[in-house]
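Crash report, auto-generated. Payload:
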Amino acid sequence: MQLTNRAKKIDKSEMTLAERMYLPAIAGGMAITLKHFFKKKPTINYPEQKRYLGPVFRGQHILKKDEAGRERCTACGLCAVACPAEAISMVAAERKAGEENLYREEKYAAVYEINMLRCIFCGFCEEACPKQAIYLRHDQFVPVFMSRDEVIYGKDRLVEDMSSRYLREGWK
Amino acid sequence: MDIFWIKAIIILVIFGLSLFVAMYSTWAERKVAGYMQDRPGPNRAGWGGLLQPLADAGKMFFKEDFIPAQANKWLFIAGPCLAMLTALLSSAVIPFGDTLRIDGQEIQVQGIEVNIGILWVFGIVSLGVYGVMVGGWASNNKFSLLGAIRAASQNISYELALGLSLIAVIMMTGSLSVRDIVNTQHGGGWNILFQPLGFVIFLTCAFAECNRTPFDLPECEAELIGGYHTEYSSMKLGFYLFAEYVNMFVSSCVVSALYFGGFNYPFMDKVAEALGNDATGHNIATAIGFFAFIAKALFFVFFFMWVRWTLPRFRYDQLMNLGWKSLIPLSILNIIVTGIGLMFNLRWFSWVAVVIIVAVVAVQAAMKPKAARGILEAAPVR
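Recovered output after restart:
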């Protein structure tokens, strides 16, 4: 009795000699494999070739600067609060006179650390940031680390480099 | 130069060639497997992965060479040695090329020319079972022993059909010497044109003799965790696997020599005429023939891989049924039909058997009643 229409009908009658001889079926199978032999391979050879992951991919974090090259982060701590993995920690400091070209506002993050072993790349820090300071860039992974010292990313590896600014699609 | 040294060099070259081809067969196998499965295959070690065999060998050498405590130590070591030895020995009688003319002497491009050449191949191939059997028995492991027994019974069963399918070729040639068999195929009269049925049987049995898929029951991982080489590690295992590839190359050579004209190629007489009849011209013509032979052999190596990555493994009873109930009767039929043909001097007569078989099969398939086709059963689709 047929209960669903998902069943596939199969022929269970006795095989003919041609079917029992295997040879026609073998020839058919070998034609299929030969066709695949000459097919274009869909493999992406990863370290040399990289797949475009889309404009909303969440990769390595970046602490943005503004157009004048001043850090946007004010060490408000909202990202650390939003972080479900508690990966972000920071130490705030007050901007001294003469540092106006380095920091945009009076308060800044003297230390800003992300523990990449804890980070789950959820992007909540990016959503929480009121100053558009932290982003997860779409074009770069966090590379593999081989020792524990490399795990915690400080400002040296997070702050944007003005010579190659990070631009997401749709930004000016 | 002394003829002894020239012969020694030829033997060394053949030896080296078998090893080299076997080495790169391991690379080609993985490459072919990859390409047939829409992958690029190994491509990290060297350009296109060409250093992969060296990397694999290096890995094999650095692995722990483990001998089980309860194993028979000397037989355990002798197993892979025997497998390798027999694999390499059988290439001795294969004529890789015509003759070289050096200092007015004609020297055959062949290890040894014996007038029972094909019997030599058979003898050595039968000895090849010992490598597997000794290794499997000495391991003192049930799975190894089961694999070895499977290998032995499979090889013995298929050797019969292999020999019987060859008898038709030998009947047509009138000689057991592989060189004579190749020489009678000179001028485009390749045996495949006269022995289609024998060729199919021979090729099938060659697959079984080499323990290649679809007949790789001696080493099926799923049932026997590796079969006869379960207990082997390091380069001993490497030798077993390597011997399989040497066997594959040698049987490809035998197939191309027996059925595909060996070192003969179309228009070879015209090429030889154009090159002249002096020593240099003759040697160049021989070299071209040599490369033609290697090209044919390499095609069959590819064919072995092509089949391996297409077909699933037979079940053991299916294997035995195919060998004893199909291939042996068919090869006896082939002998009878070829004999009738030879009596009336009709070399192509073996085609009659093929045509009759195809006709019977086609009629039987057409006569299958429509009602019988209608027994449909519902199977759940996942």
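Post-recovery validation: Chain B touches chain A at residues 32, 35-40, 43, 200, 306-307, 309-311, 360-362, 364-365, 368, 372-381 (CB under 8 Å).
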